[in-house]
Structures are given as structure tokens and as C-alpha cells.
Write a structure and sequence with these properties.
- The chain has three helices and eight strands.
- By secondary structure, the protein is of the alpha/beta class.
- The strands form two sheets. A four-stranded mixed sheet has the order 1-4-3-2, with helices on one face. It has a four-stranded mixed sheet with strand order 5-8-7-6.
- The protein is globular, with a radius of gyration of 16 Å.
- The two termini are about 15 Å apart.
Length: about 140
Amino acid sequence: MIVPKVIFGNHSALRVRRTERDRIRQFYRDVLGCELARELDDKDDFRMGGGFHISFLYGSGDGQEADKGVTYAAEHALSDDDFLKAIFLELKAEDVEEMRQEIVDFGVKVLEVPDPHLYFQAPGGQVFRLVGTTEDLSMYEGHR
């Protein structure tokens, strides 16, 4: 058995344009059901499913409380086209069809990918793939 030297943590942060803030909040809170755990002038922290934390960094603010002195430089956020060429994240849902419909109805950009899953670009530019919580995804893991 191979023991990895690193694993992915449960925190992620994305630099995004401040103009997307309202749509980001609406999408992650209202469509995906995330908890908006903290709101600062320059940052929103969401909790997904209790164990994963994702922050949206909107630019330099006053760096309140835990983030004092931090400048997020969202002016360096990727464009929507550049996000399409960057990493995608995987979202899991128990009822994939229901969540798919909610996501599409919200008005995200649906991506044409030769794969049976929904790939879409969320407000802020991030790309996601939607899969089922009990789905066998071993074909994506290099298993033969």
C-alpha cells in the first residue's frame, strides 16, 4: 500500500471579483445549501456539509478579526475564461437530478464535456462537476 505524503485539507479559498458577491452568496447559500459562516468586508466563509470550508476573497478590505492584516488581492482573480482552463472541483449530491435542475435553473453556464455528469461554471467562475454520493467513480481514478 502506498502511503501519501500529503492529502487534501478541508479548506479552500478562491479569489473572485467583488461584483459577483451577491450571486456567489445566493448560489452557495440558497442553491447548494451551504452555511454562510462569516462575512467580512473582503471575504465570505462558507461551510459545506459540515466539514469543508470554502472562502471567497473579494479584494483588500480592513482585514478584520482573524484575518487582520491580510490583503486578498482579488484584482488578480482569474477571468471566467481562465477559470475554464483551471482546476475543477467535484460536488456530490444524494439526489443528483434534483440538484442538477436547481443548479441549471439558477442560470449557471453549463459546459459541454464528453462525460455523463453535469459540468458547470458557478458565479465567481469556478468549474464544478456534479456526481452522486454513492456513485462508483473508480473509472476516473486510473483503475483498469
